[in-house]
Sequence to fold (257 residues):
Amino acid sequence: MLDTLGSLPRTVRDTRVVTTDAATPATRPASSVAVAFCPAPPLLHPAVEGRAAAETTRLRGACHDAVAAVLSVRPDVVVVVGGGAAAGERFGPGDAGDLRGFGVDVEVPFDGRPRSDGRRPPLPHLLAAWLLDEAGCTATRTGVGPADLGALLASLPGPVGVLAMGDGSARRTVKAPGYLDPAAGPFDAAVAAALAAGDAAALAALDPAEGERLLASGVPTWRAVGAALADRAVSARLRLDEAPFGVGYLVADWWSR
Fold:
């Protein structure tokens, strides 16, 4: 298979590229799908963090490269999927939110000029919009929750980009938001292995109850992406696997056909 990601700049910790082939499922997007997996901590936005630390510099670099990989396929639509969106809720042009809850007076439009009657997307969708703006994305954007991803992708002709936002466990160390849980490291390691291998089935099979117990907010999103891309050929690259603040930050990009 042609690896459309190979010529891109890398801030890559793990540069494995693995391709898997399987049968065509009954319902699937008609064309290629590229996915960037990024975490969604508030400090991903530079205005929230203030003075940049080395850890967040690496995180942003990895996210920017993953998004660039998605945009390299020139998607007609970029779908942002993350937590906080109710089933059936969708975000698009005119919607916007802000970061005032994190101590900074910064408005973040989801797509284009905000409207006075626009909806307020959740934080993962706002951070995704910022990443897309930073990358110069001009494609149409639509934001959904995990419950609606599969049906939306099945309705789009492609090529389609997906920006999947979600953190690993927040119980990786004693100073983590949820304190230390010995199961947190192995849980995140399994997710990292699935992301590196392009193993959609493994993502779809993640235990939601265990993810909730370990405060891994990305699990519903990862499960949704895995289910949507099950039985497709996937090229994968894991760009970052760290937990600098006791929370698992996993960054990867996939290309599937």
